[in-house]
Amino acid sequence: MKQLTEYEAAKRDIIMSIVYIIGVLILFYMALEASLVVAIIICMPLEIAFIIRLIHEVKKFKKLKKNDAS
User: Fold this and answer.
1) Greater pLDDT, 17 or 68
2) Which of 18, 36, 42, 49 is the most buried (most CB within 10 A)?
3) Residue-range domain boundaries for the chain
């Protein structure tokens, strides 16, 4: 099995964070059928956590890209 470089792993993590955010949005839409309050209580903390993770992964990716360039 091929080992991923840090650069490739960072790209994979960014893509996975975006997929998680889309998944939570779908969950939010499905939870809206039950109740707006339920949807907000369940989905908003997840959405915020995944957005924070995405920001962290993008910063890590930019740092790796900058180090590779120099």
Assistant:
1) 17
2) 42
3) 6-69
